[in-house]
Structure formats: C-alpha cells, structure tokens
UniProtKB/TrEMBL annotation:
GO cellular component: cytosol
Entry keyword annotation includes Oxidoreductase: no
Stored PANTHER family: DIMETHYLADENOSINE TRANSFERASE, DIMETHYLADENOSINE TRANSFERASE-RELATED
HAMAP family documented for this protein: 16SrRNA_methyltr_A
Protein name, as recorded: Ribosomal RNA small subunit methyltransferase A
Assigned EC number: 2.1.1.182
Main location: cytoplasm
Domain Ribosomal RNA adenine methylase transferase N-terminal, first and last residues per copy: 40-212
Organism superkingdom: Bacteria
Organism: Commensalibacter melissae
UniProt xrefs under InterPro entries: KsgA/Erm, rRNA_Ade_diMease-like_C, rRNA_Ade_Mease_Trfase_CS, rRNA_Ade_methylase_Trfase_N, rRNA_adenine_dimethylase, SAM-dependent_MTases_sf
Amino acid sequence: MTPTKNKQNNILPPLKETIHEHNLLAKKSLGQHFLLDPKINEQIIDLAGDLENKNIIEVGPGPGGLTRAILSSNAETVTGVEIDNRAVILLQELKKYYPQRFKIVERNALEFDLSTLCQAPRQIISNLPYNVGTALLLNWLKQANHWERFTLMFQQEVAYRICSAPNTEFYGRLSVISQWIASCTILKQIPPGAFFPPPKVYSSVIQIIPYKKQPSPALFKAMETITAAAFGQRRKMLRSSLKSINGKTLLAKASIDETRRAETLSINEFDLLARLYLDKQHS
C-alpha cells in the first residue's frame, strides 16, 4: 500500500478489541457482515488503485475495518455514511486519529445524493450491506458522471449478475444497465469465513469504471423501461415480453428478430431499443 498520510496510525487499538468494548454485533436486518481481516481489507484498497488526491466515500463502514485500510492509503479524504448509530459511536473514536481526513455522516445512503458529500475526483469503496447493495448501485449508475470509480463488494451471485455476458446464466437487467454505463470487472473472491458473522455465500469485489460519455436521464429511464419489460418475462420471445410497449414496431426498426429472447441481446442492441423507444415517446 502507499504510505499513510497519518503518522498516528500505529497506535490505533486493535479492531476486535474496539468491537468488543462497544459490544457491536452485526444486525441481520441491516444486512451486516463485518470484514475484520486487515490483510484482506488492505488487498481491497490495493485493488482500488492509486488513491492519491481522491475523495473516498464508504457506505456502511460498520466497525471500520475497511475504513482503516482506506485511511492508511494516500486518499485525500474519507467519508463514512452509516445508518447504524451503534457503529457511528465507534467510528467517532476512529475519527480522533484522523480529524482532518475522516468525516462520518449518519444517514441512509439510499435517501440522498452522495456526490454532495465531497469534491471531485470522487470514488466509492464499500463492502455493501447485502440487503440494499443492488438498489444503491442502480442509484449511483444514474449519476455515474459524478464518479471516477467504484470498488464494491457484493454477494457473489450479485457480482455475477452485474458482470455477466449475454447468453449466460446470470445475464439480466442488472448486467445490461451496469455494462451500458460502465466497464465492470470481478477482481477478487472472498470466502464466507473472512466475515463476522460468516454469510452463507462467497462475496466478490468488483470494479466499476463509468464511461466518459453517459446517457441523458430520459434515455436512462427508457433503458429501465425496456429492460424491465424484456427481462420481466425472460423466457418469452421479445414479441411477447415487449408487447406492452409496442415492441413489435421497435424490434422491426432495430432489425432484431422478434422471436429472440432478452438474454440473447447485446448491450448495443438494448441501447438501440432504448433510443428508439425514447424517440417514439417524443414523436
């Protein structure tokens, strides 16, 4: 890792000791699984690349295992967004060691625009709560032009759904929207035993780098409509699944065989359908 900007890092109390003092147990209702292994947390930060002069937001820092690793990098600032007041109290102690670089925001990350928390260049690095990870990602993809990169941990199956190619088991609506907006790559698999409490499944760290050219809000909404219809009845032919939005006409204009199924279409074909649908709405 790059040299730390904080000279006091070596006197931080052990993370497990801090958790024990605060009796911080993971809440299933919040989708919490704490990643405590410092080596794995450091590996995740290494995968995030050079953080020099970057402003980092971490959603759901919990007891601060990954937070410590981010703060030990050359990141300019770190903002933790945490809904659990128990964790916020613990994180306030960590802030004492990094008073200039670490800020804590006690809010629900689903309910506001995270890009307002810091200046560009911004990145999000997070071990996301399992129960809201997909919803958070879709929110961020709608404003991807505000973000330089995302380094995120999801349940393995969700990571597959984000990164899968057409004609594969996990290719679906989330794959199309994610890869339409950004380059998506699985970087690392993490076993259940690395977490406390251990989940029932493996987790994956993925890298999402938004493309420089982003769709308008209207086009993004059109893509949401097209993919919701197409994958809402994924085993049906497109002429049936897209019937409610006059899909027969759209498919003809796009020169797409109406007997195909949604999982066979490429990102570019979905992009064309979304643009044709938007044009139709404006005509």
